[in-house]
# Entry
Amino acid sequence: MKKLIAATTLGSLMLAAGLAQAADYQIDKQGQHASINFKISHLGYSWVYGRFNDFDGTFSWDADKPEASAINVTVNTESVDTNHAERDKHIRGEDFLNVSENATATFTSTGVEVTGDNSAKVTGDLTLNGVTKPVVLDANFIGEGEDPWGGYRAGFDATTTLKLADFGIDYNLGPASETVELILTVEGVRQ
Amino acid sequence: MQWRNTNDRFGLVTGSLHWLMALAVIGLTALGLWMTSLTYYSPYYTSAPFWHKSIGLVFAALLVLRLIWRAATPSPAHVASHQRWERRLAAGAQWLMYAAMLLIVISGYLISTAKGRGVSLFGWVEVPALISNLPDQAQRAGAVHYWLALGLLGVAGVHALGALKHHFIDKDNTLRRMLGMRLPNATENRK
# Structure
């Protein structure tokens, strides 16, 4: 955290020195141009796709200095939706997300490593089911520019694979279903 | 034994519904608790809820039938030796149980239909979902279903203890007249 503050302070000084500033973006929740999805194997035979319908967050982004980007996302875990009432009820229960205890999941980036023209590895702390672990997102920059309504937008997608047991979720779904892939896409409106 | 209730005793319809539903309450509660504790790889993981829901639908139909029958046909007179507080307690317990059974049936239906899916009746027909997508529907209906089912068992326990007290301590006809047994002191019931 201290490092982050130091980096932020450094960023501000650089701004004062006339260098390009990373702009702050609010994830477009109102227009719902963002989604957090996951997929998990069912018995090794097919995929179950699910999503979190309610989340919010911000990111800072500067195309000239992508390594200085940062993102924060907070997810309402109760909003999990796999289009199956009883399964969703089970996922919200103690066997999985335990949403009455852990109503939110959060991701806070701690570093960005640029890996290509439009790709980067975003490292951060993911708190899920009350357990905080570092994870690495494989992120892609999709595009940015003015929207038709007077705003300015930038968007990304990212994936990562989580081992459920790492987050204290050890309900036995079978050997093919010990990991879940997170697939997210966010579009932010520049503030 | 007569179909209808007489002034002295419960008839075949009331008696059968009473004992069948008593059995169903115990069976469905046990089945419900068991099925929600099954692991994903249990062979009964999908079949146990199927039976629970199908039997539950039959139970709902019996409950409606019972309430109509109760409203449409006269009940036997109170056993003359029953005290006023006993009559009040007995009546209170009965209406609590009716209310609980009704709400348990409705909440059970609301769990399964929370995402718009119907409920299968033994695979013969599907009862359509009428109320779906209420906020937090499966969770809230599930909590109501669970706690009322336990509460119902508690009240039914008091109800049963009362019946046993009348049978073994007071040695009156309270239990006999629900069991269709011979009433040795039937004259005492006449008013």
Q: What stands out?
A: Residues 12-189 of chain B form one domain. Chain B has a mean pLDDT of 92. Residues 137-169 of chain B form the longest helix (33 residues). Chain B has five helices and two strands.
